[in-house]
Amino acid sequence: MTQPCPSGATLTEAEDFLNAHPEVEAVDIVLHDSNGIGRGKIIRRHELLALYKSGRHIPISILGLDICSEDVHETGLCWDHGDGDLRAWPIPGSLKLLHNTQPARAEVLLSMYELDGRPMGSDPRHAMQRQVDAFAARGLKPAGAFELEFFLLANERDAYGRVKPASDVLDGRAPTYRTDVYSVDHLQGMLPLFNDIYAGAKKAGINAETVISEFAPGQYELTLNYREDIMQAADDLVCLKRIVRQQARAHGVTACFMAKPIEEHPGSGMHFHVSVQNQAGRNIFAEEPGAGWTDTLLHALGGLRQTMVESMLVFAPHLNSWRRFANQSYAPVNTAWGVNNRSVALRVPEGDLKSRRIEHRPAGVDANPYLVGATVLAGILYGLDNKIDPGPQTKGNAYETEDRANIPRDWREAIDAAKASEFLKTALGADMHRTFTEVKAAEYARVARTISNVDFDLYLHTI
């Protein structure tokens, strides 16, 4: 039976795709959970039209899984519902070819809906869409882009069990262990891999732009084209991560999206650039030539500063996330804002006035972009609605300011702050807030009871 598709996807989209690509034999259908992990199935070509006609029944419990794919019963998504099915529907425009697959495959993103067609509250994409709708209700439209930082690592660990940078895929040249930041020559050794990443992005409709050799050995950054549809910006990020991971594996190396895989070097961020347009298409953050900052920009910064502390779990959702925050690490350690300053949490880049935007820097690359997007957008609206003063900008080194005490000191404090946050409950929605915080609490309990090698190194022969 054909049902109206609540996501807005049409059967024509699937029919046109299949007609244009007779070589495609299978399709990856992908739904993202609270950790941003893609979960779903690989269906055969002949099953695609049914997905667009009637959706696909998927257990509700997959949105209540932790990082180890274990049920978190406290989310209420497991036996409280008898582990029943809801219906997942394709996201319009997300059906794309996958690069370098034999036989040919495609991919389509999904969102979860109740059986009556209402958005399912624990789907992270719906949380972000709610905030985009809140902007639209005010006659505003957010636009933006994410940056993607990551490591390319060897598949084998060193003699001490530590990860190490990958050898060049071009000719097998051994990696260096020094900083090669912005080295163009260093990129040459990974060009065959990056060529495949760009080819995969092109097939996915993602405008991947500049590639950079970043500060740490084996670390790289890909920038993405600014999107006027900010939901598309988040979709770009989750799809590009999968492309990078797939193509790296095809070239015999590991793409790592941990926030801090190498202890002596900076970690990987997921900086979020965001601006806001009015109904006339004008950037409301942009000042007139020669004028000072607009009230809208300042109030947005104020809202982001005031809500950042209780939201840090969204930006740093894992134990490893908190290893990224350290002085002189290019990761912010307080809520400071500033202009053209990479030591702050909220950076206003220099540049053309029409492109005036906020670069939100706290999130690690291990964060879920839909939840980051929802939280940042809600923080901007909070600032605009309440006309919050951000205080003076930080000039110079923000690592030397004194307001770090407001930031949670560790993962446990961040979980407690997020659970108690009425702002975060509003930003994510009550269901998503409960799912996310209960998953994080379960993961914390798992880590806390795990006896690691560090325990033995420190205590086995000393106490």
Describe this structure in words.
The chain has helices at 11-20, 48-54, 124-137, 184-188, 191-203, 230-250, 295-315, 369-386, 411-420, 422-428, 430-448, 453-459, and strands at residues 26-32, 38-44, 56-59, 85-90, 96-97, 105-113, 141-153, 208-213, 219-224, 254-256, 272-277, 337-339, 346-348, 358-360. It folds into two domains: 11-120, Roll (Ubiquitin-like (UB roll)), CATH 3.10.20.70; 132-457, Creatine Kinase, Chain A, domain 2. The protein is globular, with a radius of gyration of 22 Å. Strands 7, 8, 9, 10, 11, 12, 13 and 14 form an eight-stranded mixed β-sheet that branches. It has 463 residues and is α+β, with helices and mostly antiparallel strands. α3 (124-137) runs parallel beside α8 (369-386). It has twelve helices and 14 strands. Helix content is 33%, strand content 17%.
Quick check: average pLDDT? 94
With helices defined by DSSP (H or I, 4 residues minimum), what is the helix count? 12
The portion of residues forming beta strands comes to: 15-25%
Low-confidence stretches: none
Question: What is the count of β-strands?
Answer: 14
Characterize the overall form.
Answer: globular
CATH top level of the largest domain is Alpha Beta
The name of the CATH architecture of the largest domain is 2-Layer Sandwich
CATH superfamily of the largest domain: Glutamine synthetase/guanido kinase, catalytic domain
Helix and strand composition category: alpha+beta
- Major beta sheet, specifics? 8 strands, mixed
**CATH topology-level name of the largest domain:** Creatine Kinase, Chain A, domain 2
Radius of gyration from CA coordinates: 22 Å
Elements, N to C (H/E): HEEHEEEEHEHHEEHEEHEEEHHHHH
Number of domains: 2
* Helix percentage: 25-40%
GO molecular function: glutamine synthetase activity
GO biological process, one term: glutamine biosynthetic process
Organism: Donghicola eburneus
Protein name: Glutamine synthetase GlnA1
